[in-house]
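Notes from hallway chat w/ T.B., transcribed later so I don't forget. T.B. wanted the structure written out for a chain they're using in a teaching module, and asked if we could keep both sequence and C-alpha cells in one place. Agreed to drop them here.
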Amino acid sequence: MNSAFFSWKKYMSYILMATLAIFVWQWVTNPMVIVVTGVGSISAPAESAVLTFSLVSSASNADEALSNVKNNAEKLKNTLKEIGIPESEIYESQIAVTPSESSFQGSVSMGLKTDKITMLDRVISILYSGGAVVVSQPVLTAKNVEDMDKKAYDMAIKDAKKKASEIALSNLKIFKKIVLIQESQAQGSSTVTTKADEATQITDNISPDTGLLKINKVVSVSYKMW
C-alpha cells in the first residue's frame, strides 16, 4: 500500500511540475504588448534670428527691371545697416529678370541674420517699407541646440516609461522590457518659436520681448510585460 501511495504521490508531483512548466511557458511566450507615447519639450531664450524676403520690380525693358531691383536692394541694405545689422549678415541671390506679355520683371531673394531679437517687428516693418514682397516668419536659433534636442528626447523617453509603469501596475505586471523605440515622423521633432509666458519671464528673468526656441519630441515606445 505504501508503494502504491508513493507511486501516486510521485505521479501527482509530475503532473504538477508539468502544469507549472506549461504555465511558465505560456507566461513567458505570451507577454502583454503595449505601445505608449512619450512627449518631451524644452525651450531656451533665442540668441539670433534669420529672415528671408524677396524684392520684385516690373519695367518696360529688362535693363530697367534689373536696375530697379538692384537699386531697391541697395537702399534696403543701407537701411538695415543703419539700424545695426552688418552687411556681412545680409545676403542676396543673383537678380533674375523674366519677360511677361507686356513687361519685364526683376526679382531677387534676400535674407539676413540678426541678434536683435527685440527689434524683429521693426526689422520686418522696414523690409516691407523697402519693397519686400514676401517676408518669412523669423527662424530663431539658440546655443547648444543639439543638447536641447537630446534633452527633449530623454524627456520623451522618461514620459513613456512613466506611462508604461502605470499600465504595468494597473495590470499586475511585474516585469517589462522595451522592444522598440520610434521617433514620430507625423508629429515628429519640431522646432517652434514663441514668446515666454509671464511665469517663465519671472522665473528665468527673461524679457517679455525675448523669443523662445522650443523643441518638441514625440516617441512611440513598444513594451512587453509579464
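Follow-up for T.B.: The chain has two domains: 31-45+143-225, 48-140. Might be a good example for the class.
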